[in-house]
Amino acid sequence: MEGKVIIFSAPSGAGKTTIAKEILNSFSTIDFSISATSREKRMGERNGVDYYFLKPDEFRKKIENNEFLEWEEVYPDSFYGTLKTEVQRIWDENKHVMFDVDTIGGLNIKKIYGEKALAIFIQPPSIQALEERLRKRSTETEESLKKRMARAELELSYAIQFDKNITNDNLQKAIAETKKVISDFIAQ
């Protein structure tokens, strides 16, 4: 089997992680690429499962050593990226790689893998619905919420560059549409 790449991107709160988890539960031939980040762990997150949690200086050192497929400094000292070793680990298991990354990272990965990659952008029904979802999480201060909303508006402007846009106004419908798109892609 030739390994393919499936990329999920969306503004924070659009539902991409929920949809991605459903895809992983539905396709035994897809494995999740664990991203690296320099942000603090949230409640319940585990190193090497949810993310590889690195200190900002550790992250910078890996950048210097060209160990990332892609990376971005989303906010000052808040890095996210994909280690090259993750892709190889999954392909060595004869599986396709799934990414849950920000929009810039997703587009960069798509450029690298071209036709071997499917880039899916998960849209919130509206910017207002997105803000409501983030508020319900209760993980943001007003200041961090404002930053996330400004970033979300920027990320939404990149949606047109993705292979497929799926609006998450009904979670089950969005999951079903995503499963079909991925099934068709893998079968090619």
Give your account of this protein's structure.
The chain is an alpha/beta fold and 188 residues long. It has one domain (5-187): P-loop containing nucleotide triphosphate hydrolases (Rossmann fold, 3-Layer(aba) Sandwich). Helices cover 44% and strands 22% of the residues. The chain is built from seven helices and nine strands; from the N terminus they run E-H-E-E-E-H-E-E-H-E-H-E-H-H-E-H. A five-stranded parallel β-sheet has the order 2-7-1-8-9, with helices on both faces. Helix 5 runs antiparallel to helix 6.
SSE blueprint:
Elements: E1 5-9, H1 16-26, E2 30-32, E3 36-37, E4 52-53, H2 56-64, E5 68-75, E6 78-83, H3 84-92, E7 96-100, H4 103-113, E8 117-123, H5 127-137, H6 142-156, E9 164-167, H7 171-187
Parallel strand pairs: 1-7, 1-8, 2-7, 3-4, 8-9
Antiparallel strand pairs: 3-6, 5-6
Please sum up the structure shown:
The protein is 44% helix and 22% strand.
CATH superfamily membership: P-loop containing nucleotide triphosphate hydrolases
The end-to-end span amounts to 12 Å
Proportion of beta-strand residues: 15-25%
Overall mean pLDDT stands at 90
